[in-house]
Amino acid sequence: MTQLALVIDLNVCVGCHACVTNCKEWNTSGEAGPMVDQNPYGKDPTGTFFNRVQTFEVGEFPNTETVHFPKSCLHCEDPPCVPVCPTGASYKRKEDGIVLVDYDKCIGCKYCSWACPYGAREVDEHQKVMKKCTLCVDRIYDPKMTEEERRPACVRACPTSARLFGDIHDPESEVSLAIREAGGYQLMPEWGTSPANHYLPRRKIKLRIRHDEIERADNPLKIDGLLPKPDKAEPSLDDVTSW
Amino acid sequence: MHPAFSVIFLTTLIGVGQGLFLALFTVESYAAFDLLPRQSSAFYATGSVIALLFLVGGLIASFFHLGRPERAWRSATQWRTSWLSREVIVLPAFMGTVFLYGAAHWLDINPVFAQLPTGAPVNVTAVLGTIGTVLAFALFVCTGMIYACLRFLREWHTPLTVINYILLGGASGFTLAAGFAALQAPDLVRFFAGWAALITAVGLVSRGASLLRNARLKPRSTLQSAIGIKHPHIVQTTQGAMGGSFNTREFFHGGTANLLRSLKWWFLIGAFLAPMLILGLAMFEGEGDLPLLLVAFAIQYLGLLAERWYFFAQANHPQNLYYQSVA
Q1: How many domains does chain B have?
Q2: Do B220 and A54 touch (CB under 8 A)?
Q3: Most buried in the list A78, A141, A174, B132, measured by CB within 10 Å?
Q4: B218 within domain boundaries
Q5: Count of helix runs (H) and strand runs (E) in chain B
Q6: What is the pTM of this model?
Q7: Partner-chain residue, chosen from A45, A191, A201, that has the shortest CB–CB distance to B152
Q8: pLDDT per residue as tens digits for the range B117-162
């Protein structure tokens, strides 16, 4: 069974918000209706977004590190928001595992947002229904688009390729490989929601060189130059062997 | 959580309605076994009308919670999985039963079906009352489970939530019944006031137990598990929105810590201690002091409004970990 998901590489994300703006642009122009902002140019601009990039500071000065953290619906494999919905507007698609809201059935009771530990759902104050990331379900199956274009808007926008998209149930997919080989993890695993979206951790590239690899044990006096030739009678297997 | 007044009024008003209906049918059952004097049908009919008014008030309040109230009928469809859907079915069923119960008394259509071995008659209102009692408790369970089933809202995820809804609704309903009896059946004031004081006292114990439990809760989710970075010192610098979002409005109560602390004592006094005192006083007076009992009900109801506000405000949603700094 297919489970489409995003894999977000925190090691690469630069926090540019391109995914946020492209997500908003694509999803506000779709058939599902606009994602209207309130007070967009005023003092406290607010509105509905499917995707947010948050920033965290890890550590204490001077040993701090800034981590940009994109957050959208994680399309849990066991989504707690779906069974609580009284109208059936919230559902998880069997064929590809995308969690969706039917905006024509939603009564705007907000109960599903209470049932989501990640705060992935946001009410649209204009349409008065619950909205959330659709994994660009209206893009990824569009036959009019090229293969390259049939990916979520956020993935297309990312300038550093921090966002991967694919089927995490296919062990050979790009996302499965990334999860397996780069230590992909889930958010808040303690609730057993089994989020489909995974995050790749920050990774430091470190060359581990032992001391004796810098200072040659066979040159304790650090004298550069040709090493004395061993006696021809002396058996040797290392690279100083001269014959 | 942000306490929505629609839900606060819904849960408190239907609680009073359910409690009042249970009080009425308790008297009718006692009377059937000659443990209490029989009451006129007007007493039950008027009581049912009052209970129905509270239930209708709660139902109206609930619509203010919905973004799309015109689609509310859809919410009855997912009763297999959703406690909210179950409540949507049980509430009108209970209201209909209370209506029929009141109507049967009002029109005096009350044929006896059968007789219990003890000789007590089984009539229409006894059957309707029994169905109503089952539905009243079912409604309490549905209302409580809406909150208790959310496992990561740990302040709510306890059987005490359901028990509190039953006891607090029952207590306020019996207190109102005592006031109603002072008006229509003064000989029942002592009975109702006694039960109201008792249920209020048990409610104090169970609500106190949930307060103690919640004070000792340790959050299971941390910022570390929320973003998956294992460092003891993580500070959020931005949350991706400058003017706040649905997430900052819906999941934070917006009051100060001081308000929360003081409100706890106010509702313990208002919903429990003061009504118990007044009800005890009313029991001593015996004959029913209508203004006094109405004051007891008003104080208890206001106390319950504060209790419900606190119930929501105290619940700390794990999503708040992602929304600690507006920038």
Answers
A1: 1
A2: no
A3: B132
A4: yes
A5: 11, 3
A6: 0.90
A7: A191
A8: 877 778 899 999 999 999 999 999 999 999 999 999 999 999 999 9
Q: Which residues in chain B have their CB less than 8 angstroms from residue A85's CB?
A: 78, 82
B1: pLDDT strictly greater than 50: yes
Assigned domain for B326 exists: no
Residues A88, B231: C-beta atoms closer than 8 Å: no
Flag whether residue B326 sits within 8 Å of chain A, measured between CB atoms.
no
Q: Does B161 touch chain A (CB under 8 A)?
A: no
The mean pLDDT value for B49-62 works out to: 97
Q: What is the pLDDT of residue A179?
A: 96
For residue A242, pLDDT over 60 is answered with no
pLDDT, tens only, B162-199:
999 999 999 999 999 999 999 988 889 999 999 999 99
| Cα–Cα distance measured from residue B174 to residue B102, given in angstroms and rounded to the nearest whole number | 18
Residue B46 domain flag = yes
In order, the DSSP letters of B138-192 are HHHHHHHHHHHT-TT-TTT-SHHHHHHHHHHHHHHHHHHHHHHHHHH-GGGHHHH
pLDDT tens string B210-240 = 999 999 999 999 999 999 999 999 999 999 8
Task: Report residue A243's pLDDT band, with 50, 70 and 90 as the boundaries.
Answer: very low
Asked whether the predicted pLDDT for residue A142 surpasses 70, the reply is: yes
Closest chain A residue to B244 measured between Cα atoms? A46
- Residue whose token pair is 């509310």: B72
* 3-state SS class at A191: helix
State how far the alpha carbon of B206 is from the alpha carbons of B89, B203, B244, B280, in Å: 28, 5, 37, 20
Closest to B136 measured CA to CA, from B25, B59, B40, B49: B25
Q: Is the pLDDT of residue B300 over 90?
A: yes
- Token couple for A144: 């009019």
Q: What is the CATH number of the domain that holds B244?
A: 1.20.1630
Q: What is the pLDDT of residue B326?
A: 67
In-domain check, residue B310:
yes
**Cis amide linkage into residue A228, ω under 30° from 0:** no
Q: For residue A20, which residues of chain B lie inside 8 Å, CB to CB?
A: 240
Asked whether the beta carbons of residue A188 and residue B85 sit closer than 8 angstroms, the reply is: no
